[in-house]
Amino acid sequence: MIEIITTENIHLYRTEMDEAYRLRHDVFVDEKGWRDLAQADQREIDQFDNEHALHMICRQNGKVVGYQRMLPTTKPHLLSSVLADLCEVERPVGDHIWEWTRYCVAKPHRERGRALSPVANALLSAIVEWGMESGVDRIIIEMEPIWLLRLVQLNFMVTPLGIPREIGGDSVVAVVAKFDHRTLQMLQAMRGNSKRVLKDCPPSAVVAAQ
Questions:
Q1: For 132-159, what is each residue's pLDDT tens digit?
Q2: DSSP character for 111?
């Protein structure tokens, strides 16, 4: 199951968050080569890992194997503060729109071919479940353009916010992706069950989104 971590309960997840920050460093610094994010302690942490961030982790056998971070667009976030050049239209802002960042899955748990891995499916399903319970129906994503078709196939309604730009050697495009019950149904169909993937959310995970 996917666990949500906020400023309210992060003190209970010190070990898990340490593993998550190290997974982020492995993926974004060591694999992707984003050397600007490199840290001597091998923990990738930035200015958005603050009291407004909502972290989601996936654990298997007690170890963090998947992670993603949600940021409210009503507060400073990547598109507003770091990657503003990716947006060529009026920037989407609102309590119902959050930014999806730092998505990463440990190597042994990634998809092979076109199908989403169980961990990837659970992380995406968690966004939709959380959003539908919290009044959130759109996410901003900065991603490689190849993901556009994948998201459409998962029943996200995707709108580019600008043209792709070269960032750190990668082509990156910003999009806003709308989702609803059809998105969740597609993800459930892909994994073959309709079981809830989210554990009980701390109150701040829902209140913060309203």
A1: 999 999 999 999 999 999 999 999 999 9
A2: -
Nearest CA to 109 out of 193, 195, 26 is that of 26
Task: Map out the domains of the chain as residue ranges.
Answer: 2-196
Residue with tokens 């340490």: 18
- Measure the CA–CA gap between 96 and 210, rounded to whole angstroms: 8
Give pLDDT tens digits for 163-172. 999 987 889 9
**Which amino acid, residue 127?**
I
| SS3 call for 86 | helix
Q: How far lies 55's CA from each of 1, 4, 19, 91, in Å?
A: 14, 6, 12, 23
- Neighbouring CB atoms inside 10 A of 14's CB total 9
| 111-145: burial string, b at 16+ Cβ within 10 Å, e else | eeeeebbbbbbbbbbbbbbbbeebebbbbbbbbee
Query: Residues 104, 66: contact at Cβ < 8 Å?
Result: yes
Task: Let me know: does 67 contact 109? Beta carbons within 8 Å.
Answer: no
Decide: 71 and 103 in contact? Cβ < 8 Å: no
**CATH T-level assignment (fold) for domain 2-196:** Aminopeptidase (3.40.630)
CA end-to-end span of the chain: 24
Contact 79, 86 (CB under 8 A): yes
Q: 135 and 210 in contact (C-beta within 8 Å)?
A: yes
